[in-house]
Amino acid sequence: MKRSGPSVELNALVRSVKEVETRFLKPHLGAPTLTTPSRKEILDVAAYIVLVHGGENFAEGLALWVLGKSVGNWTKRKKATRSTVSLLLYQKVPPDDAPPLSVFDNIRTALDDAKTRMSKVVNDNHGITLDHLRSLFIPLGVNVPADPVLSASLDLLVTMRHQWAHQDRRRAKVVKSAQDAQTTVSDCLVLAKKLSAEVKSVRP
User: Fold this and answer.
1) Based on CB atoms within 10 Å of each CB, which residue in 18, 67, 100, 129 is the most buried?
2) Domain range spanning residue 144?
3) pTM, 2 dp
């Protein structure tokens, strides 16, 4: 059986980032220089940013794990958690003509409906902007870390990835050195670790 959970997702993200960093950034990392990055460095940094942005799978994996645990804890153990309550707060009030259900089934069907809707949000894949992270995790009872420095680095990563992945020629490109890219992604990994810790703390 494949293992899952906050630690598994975080370790996979860290391994992936390290692998692409070794491949694309390592040749350019060294003593700081005041010169403009070479074309090769610029392209390697672009490849690095685009590949690292694939870390959105980390956030999606975390969200699906919380969702599955929350529903499973009620269905299998009749245990309600902060995540269960938060999910249910996002439900519609059942219509008056709905057939009466037991308390257990009422909550179970509401959770099933929530799971279906949240799974769609997770799998729609809107990247790793802070707004999208909040739309994934707030309904699950998980706070997204609000650190201005880390948030700025995440915004920068998203901007750089977008400009290289979509080749937007109307805007000036944000050109960063390998060292700058490494720092930006390092901040994003700190944010990922904090988010992973938040997920663990809610005990879904």
Assistant:
1) 67
2) 6-202
3) 0.82
